[in-house]
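Assemble and predict.
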Amino acid sequence: MRDYQAKIVENKEIAKGICSITFDLGEEAVVRCGQFGDILVGGTHLLRRPIAICKVEGRLVTFCYQVKGEGTQKLQKAEAGSTLSVLMPLGNGFFVEKEEKKVALVGGGVGVFPLISVLREYKAEKQISAYIGYRNAAAVCGVEEFKKADKFVGVTDDGSYGEKMNAVQAFEADLKNGNRPDVVLACGPTPMLRALKALVEREGLTCYVSLEERMGCGIGACLVCVCNLTNGEHARVCKDGPVFNAKEVVL
Ligand SMILES: Cc1cc2nc3c(=O)[nH]c(=O)nc-3n(C[C@H](O)[C@H](O)[C@H](O)COP(=O)(O)OP(=O)(O)OC[C@H]3O[C@@H](n4cnc5c(N)ncnc54)[C@H](O)[C@@H]3O)c2cc1C
Ligand code: FES
């Protein structure tokens, strides 16, 4: 992990309220899919904002973010040519075992972005099906990446793009059609992950989920991001996660 003084190459809107920001780190970084960066947005914001690393190409690293509150609004205003402090790579990331050949990606909301990094890392060696849920057609993004998967099912809450259903329902429908993965990797809002956890438990599937808790330090020191484990213990999402085996974490 390093604190990069990263130069913004591009910062643009890619769907309604969703932006993509690309930094030049000045050197190549070694990043595992599902890891994240903590971006200091500056101004009165002393806290950093954790955002999943979406894409790494040489010295360039791209994050995609939904403009929500003050921090991400400030980030949206950052201009190409300026420099921000980016602490990365953080967290454990996703890991697919050698014997796990068929991978299902299930993502919703801002959880779709770390899954793009999984697809980029594993598409050459694994058979990947992606089930991706968006709020509506205006929020659809990353499709050009997900279409590189062996199978891509994009759905929306209101049916304005793809079928009217959520990502877990799309995954379940395909499961019923006999498309059974060796491992499921997921990221999205907690209710989505909860529904997925119930489904994979019923089906006896291995599943890893990436959590998006609110964070303070991002490096394991402040305990703001602690989550409950099923064995009664606790874990720090920033340092011990953000990726956990679904059966080991309370959602
Ligand atoms: C490991 C990790 C990876 C993430 N990856 C991405 C990503 O790739 N793209 C992306 O858009 N966002 C991602 N997030 C969420 C992102 O960090 C928050 O949306 C962001 O910090 C909000 O900052 P803000 O100052 O704009 O909003 P704030 O003013 O801090 O909050 C605005 C609203 O967003 C809610 N909120 C804030 N943080 C979170 C959170 N972590 N989860 C759910 N709701 C939150 C607040 O409760 C509030 O309602 C990730 C979070 C984590 C922990
Ligand atoms: S954010 Fe400080 S310990 Fe995780």
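The pocket of flavin-adenine dinucleotide (ligand 1) is lined by residues 36, 49-52, 64-66, 68-72, 110, 113, 212-215, 242 (CB under 6 Å).
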